[in-house]
Structures are given as C-alpha cells and as structure tokens.
Amino acid sequence: MSLGAYFASLSIPNLIGRLPGGVAQGLIWGIMALGVYITFRLLDVADLTVDGSFTTGGAVTVMLTLAGCPMWLALLVALAAGLLAGLVTGLLHTKLGIPAILAGILTQFALYSINLHIMAMHANQSVNPDKYALLLTGRHVPQSILVGAIFVVAIIALLYWYFGTEQGSAMRATGSNPNMSRAQGINIDNMKVLGLSLSNGLVALSGGLMAQYQGFADINMGRGAIVIGLAAVIIGEVLCDAFFRKGSSFWVRLGFVALGGVVYYIVMVIILWLRLNSNDLKLVTAVLVAVFLAVPYLQGQRRSSFRAAARHAAAAKKGGDANA
User: Fold this and answer.
1) Which pTM does this prediction carry?
2) pLDDT of 201 over the 70 cut
3) Cβ atoms 236, 256 nearer than 8 A
C-alpha cells in the first residue's frame, strides 16, 4: 500500500470516536500518576511496588464486588490494601536497610502470589456491569469521564490540603533534603514509610477503578504500570513548565500530573488509530518517557550554552574596549 493510500484509509471520525475512551482511561491512570508523583518527586524514592499494588487494587475491588459489597466499600478496602503494600515496602527499606528499589521489587514479587490468592487462584476475574452497580464502565464512557474527573479533583484537593499540613510539609522536606530534615528533628524513616503507603494506596485505588472500567481484574494488569505512571508525571511536568515558565503552585502541578495521564492515553489512541502494531506500545512508551525525561536536561544545557556564549561575548567586548 502506498503512503497516500495508507493515510486515505484512516478514518478521522473513527479517531474522534475513540478519544473519549482514551480520556476516561487517562483520568484513571492520572490518579495512579499522582501516587507515583509522591514517591518519584516528593520523596525522591524509586518505588517499583506499583506494578503489584495496581493489580491488588483491581483484584480486591472485583472480588468484593462479586461478594456483594457496596462499591464504595470495595474501593475503600482496595485503598487500604494499597496502603498496606506500601507499608511493607517502607518497612523493608527503613527497618531492614534494604534499598528502596529492591524493597519495591520484593513487595511486587510477593504481591503476584498474593493477588492470585485474592482472585481465588484465577488469573482473571470478571465483573458484569449488567449485574453490578459499577461507578464507571467502558459501556458508558461519558459517565466514566465525569466520575474519573470527580475522583481526580477530589484527590488533588486532598493532597493539596495534606501537603500543606505540618506532616505533609515534613514529608516534602524529607525528599528535598533528608540531612537537613533529620537535623530539624523530622523522623525521615517514618516520612518515607508514610509516603510509600500513601502512594500505593492511590495506585491501588486507580487499579480498582480500572478494573471496573474494563470489567475484569487480571493478574498482569499492572505490568509496566510504573512506566506509564512515570510517563504521565514527566509529560505533566513538561507541559506545566511550558505553560508556567515562572513557576506554578503545588495544586497546579498536581493537576498537570493527572493531565499527563490523559495526554499519554490520547497518544496511545492515536498510535492504535494509525494501525501500528499493538505489540510495539511498550516500545513507544519507553521512547516517549525517554524523550520527555530528556527535554528538561536539554533545555538546561541550551540555557547554559547561551549564558556561556553571552559571557564570552561580554568578555571579548570588554577586552576590545580596554585595548582601544
């Protein structure tokens, strides 16, 4: 097929019809990105528990829903399960001296078996939206977008309030400068445990919402979740810095992190619309994250080179004036 015929075969209405679904999923992943942001940016900790706790949230939500629990209770228990997973990672790191990245891997590894037990040793458990009152589902995308947006706004408001409290400020200080925080009397180990718990609680909540949206929980649904979360965080930060060159408030940055999840999924929708091989999505995600990670560094290098050139020009001019 020629290039012209290929582009002629692409349907714009089909792309427009797919975009709302991408927005709905992007909002759900945006919640997960907010959890990743807490560890990746605020605590400066590389936490790989995410791939396991995302699945834990989905598994708990589906199994409790099948058992007849109200949806609000199922999501609340999923949140608690994520908090517990983050707590285990935090204790392994702070009490046993295991590096954070290895502690996350150990917890994620253990969660694979735990998640299988939660789902009664089945790799997949489905929940029928016709039989159960789900908050959001792929069958009703506009409602899912509304519910997802409400969750995102509520979580951003809670995080903005919490990180403005004394405890939240102590957590941010721990990630910014651990030595200074310790000198100020902050128990940085407790702050790390608390931050890891809060992060994975949000990730599990996102997993519970995603399980509802897609109608099932799968043992592999969290595979690569950390990469998607990082992609959303980096995309959101780059967009935020592009719009607010002189800096932005904390709640604005949180909003852009959630928006990063939406942008990421819209890009995925466009890639699938272009009929690229779906098996290449992880490759595209890796390239996308690498590009957005490199943008701040390259911008800094460019500004540094401009400053150096300006200094050299000023020095040359000063030397010429002295010789004259």
Assistant:
1) 0.88
2) yes
3) yes
